[in-house]
Amino acid sequence: MEFSLKRSDLLEPLAKVVGVLEKRQTLPILSHVLLSVEAERVTLCGTDQEVELQTQVDFEAGTIQVQAAGRCAVPGRKLLEICRHLPADAELSFSLSDARLTLTSGAFESQFSTLPAEEFPSLDGYQPPQQMLTVNAVDLGQMLGKSAFAMAQQDVRYFFNGMLFELEGLQFKVVATNGQRLAVVALKQAMTEHQAVGRPIVPRKGVLELVKLLDGVEGEVDLGFSDTSIVAQMTGKRFVSKLIDGEYPDYTKAIPDQPDKRVTCDRGLLRDALIRTAVMSNEVYKNVKLSLQEDKLMLFTNNPLQEQAEESLSVEYQGEALDIGFNIHFLIEALGAMSGKNVSMGFSGQTSPCLITDPDDAQATFVVSPMII
């Protein structure tokens, strides 16, 4: 194998592939990137056996020269760190001989120990897609970005450690929850034809890697589902993730129906006030008390050191006075996932969840459960 290309052509796809690799592996080859070189094509692939990403180097005509095709598995992070610290306009030359990959760029030269491409693992239990649908890449990225924060981490209820992709009729929704907060985001425009049906659960890492992969991507994404896997294909990239084997609970039961107390205010002002107030909250319970009065919202928090913080905000509210407690970071993250200027918050009482919506975005719904104050 022997080829040359520009650093600028290799760096971004290499960084994306290395991003799926775990820093600690049970198998040495899982720290490697599969490098495949064909005539005028360089493909990179990385996996942790839960998710897999394959990218094709995007180059202009004449910017890559292939003298000899071939394949090998090269240490991913070492290659990435070297490429990052080479000059921006550097030309890279690679050659493989006796399981050693030599990288030359100007006066710099390094040699990598490689592993055989035949030993590079495929995704465990992968099945080809049985259902396909096509969505706009920007819309999908926004859906995932608005809801990913609500996923659980290392929850014993394993289905909460991922995101539900709910496909029914012409509707496509993503749902995430940790049992205390919930995010439901629907595709902006209903699909024009019946494309897929199902409720696959994509694991947390798969969702977060897909969010990064979609950043800056335009055009369409082809999503494919099987009983065990999800595949996302876009120009020059192919992403595969295993699915969580389980049944997602009926999340609709957690969404309050017609709260009788509604507050509307500036989303940015409320979020900033919560962030300031959070500095003095209890590090364990992260508590904040919201006190509602006519056209006024009071925030109050304290901690075991007898420190406290409070702030008053002008809001639109006509109703009975209400004191209710929340995990302050759950509120901050929900507000941060939204994009509109204003936010609407619905309450039914001290023990009922808060319904958070954006008046300008009917597709996104957030729910936060209260805590004892």
Task: Considering the chains and any ligands shown, give keywords for the structure.
373 residues; DNA Polymerase III, Chain A, domain 2; 8-stranded antiparallel sheet; elongated
Can you characterise this structure?
α1 packs across α2. The chain has an eight-stranded antiparallel sheet. Strands 14-11-12-13-25-24-23-18 form an eight-stranded antiparallel sheet. A five-stranded antiparallel sheet has the order 5-1-7-8-9. It starts with a strand and ends in a 5-residue tail after the last strand. The chain is built from six helices and 25 strands. It has three domains: 118 residues, DNA Polymerase III, subunit A, domain 2 (DNA Polymerase III, Chain A, domain 2); 122 residues, DNA Polymerase III, Chain A, domain 2 (Roll), CATH 3.10.150; 114 residues, DNA Polymerase III, Chain A, domain 2 (Roll). A hairpin with a 5-residue loop joins β20 and β21. It is 17% helix and 41% strand. The model has no long low-confidence stretch (mean pLDDT 94). The protein is α+β, with helices and mostly antiparallel strands. The chain is elongated.
